[in-house]
Write a structure and sequence with these properties.
The protein has three helices and eight strands; from the N terminus they run ββααββαββββ. A hairpin with a 3-residue loop joins β3 and β4. The chain is extended, with a radius of gyration of 20 Å.
């Protein structure tokens, strides 16, 4: 397992032109492939797993659209956030002019060390390593999610 990191330079006009690491995705795992992998690792059949994942998407969309935060134990929270612009007075603010975008966000489950106070993510904290990748390199078939 490896979290892939690409090194990129900040080239914005007023930046300090430093280089930063940016996590990159090697590929995308769609619902059908995810259902196949889950069914291979459980006693649930592929059609049952696919049905549950399809229902999960519908239920999550419905609840997120109603501003309900969704917690998946030992994974994290999904919630909605909004990017807005300001108005000079409360009664001058309106959705049509001031709401710029609405996004679904994810916050991984975290733990806090009682002795040091350090916060660590539990969601992907099971032994991953970071690997710097060449942005021009093609991913292997294993990285493709096949």
């Amino acid at each position: 397992m490896a979290v892939l990191v690409k090194v990129v330079q900040d080239n914005r006009k007023n930046s300090n032109k430093l280089f930063y690491g940016k996590a990159v995705a090697a590929s995308t795992l769609d619902t059908k492939k995810l259902a196949k992998r889950i069914s291979e690792n459980t006693t649930a059949t592929y059609p049952d797993t696919l049905a549950v994942l399809t229902a999960l998407v519908k239920v999550m969309n419905l609840n997120l659209a109603n501003s309900i935060k969704i917690k998946i134990d030992n994974f994290g929270y999904f919630y909605v956030s909004a990017r807005t612009s300001g108005a000079l007075a409360k009664d001058e603010w309106n959705v049509r002019e001031n709401l710029k975008s609405v996004r679904v966000r994810f916050q991984p489950t975290q733990t806090r060390d009682g002795a040091t106070g350090a916060v660590t993510g539990k969601s992907i904290g099971f032994g991953y390593k970071a690997v710097v990748v060449d942005p021009e390199a093609k991913p292997t078939q294993e990285e493709e999610g096949e």
